[in-house]
Design brief:
The structure is a homodimer. Chain A is mainly alpha-helical. The first copy, chain A, has five helices and three strands. The first copy, chain A, binds a DNA duplex through helix 3 and helix 4. Chains A, B: Pfam families: HxlR.
DNA sequence: GTAACCAGTTACCAATTGGTAAGTAATCCC
DNA sequence: GGGATTACTTACCAATTGGTAACTGGTTAC
């Protein structure tokens, strides 16, 4: 974790949200707080170690809060802070751009039957000579 | 590079712009195309290897174009494609969020003289018990 | 007594990422 | 012939990141 000094605002923002899973965790919390186990289930493929690590980082950056209930078995709740909500709003345009891009990529591969493991470079990836 | 399948649009977007330096390269190209050497100078601290790698990835993703002039000594120009410009626009709110956050962090450390290497956790990073 | 529950923690290992530094290629200029 | 210029390429090494799997702790239910 470099933690600045940052060249620009985007640099600072990417430092927080750029790590693997971090944006996805934010997305999972955008509507309501979640328990640890719920996050682990929603983010299919994440390991417990990673989830904890990322949550701790986001917590240290004041993006998510962590609320522990004195229950047995344990109950811990994660949710967005005010800064986290603002960050989520700032990410909306980027998310939309990504969706439109995914649609475009789908169209690229549509219309071809059995396009599997084609070794030739796709025309849109061609390097300008 | 995982290259999908993506969980959501933000996932796809972060896959492209999440790598180290990538957002900064985008920023450097936002107003006008740049030559390789110019980028290397502007992005202080980047190694030639990294710069090339990131540029190639952004090029393969159709975010930047690469134009080679048949000159000696060589001249290569990098600039934003249409998709790259759209991506830059989508990143503006995030950049603003980052700027406001940097200001907030500056205010945190302002007012203290010789606040250097303080081992105690800052209050805004405290973990909720 | 012991199994289940939840939210972690820990140890160990593999893969990816990033840095340094030297080399390459083509041409012009002296 | 030799140096300067520009945009890379390559080899090698260190650091960071990420994965797997086993273990912990306190309480309740059987």
């Amino acid at each position: 974790m470099p933690r600045g000094p940052y060249i620009c605002g985007l640099d600072a923002a990417m430092d927080i949200v750029g790590g693997k899973w971090k944006a996805l965790i934010l997305w999972e919390l955008k509507d309501q707080p979640r328990r640890f186990g719920q996050l682990r289930q929603s983010l299919t493929g994440i390991s417990e170690k990673m989830l904890i690590q990322r949550l701790r980082e986001l917590e240290a950056d004041e993006i998510v809060y962590r609320k522990v209930y004195a229950h047995v078995p344990p109950k811990v709740e994660y949710g967005l802070t005010e800064a986290g909500t603002a960050l989520h709003r700032a990410l909306l345009p980027l998310a939309h751009w990504g969706e439109r891009r995914m649609e475009a990529l789908d169209e690229q591969t549509a219309g071809h039957l059995t396009v599997v493991d084609d070794p030739s470079p796709s025309p849109w990836a061609a390097r300008s000579a």
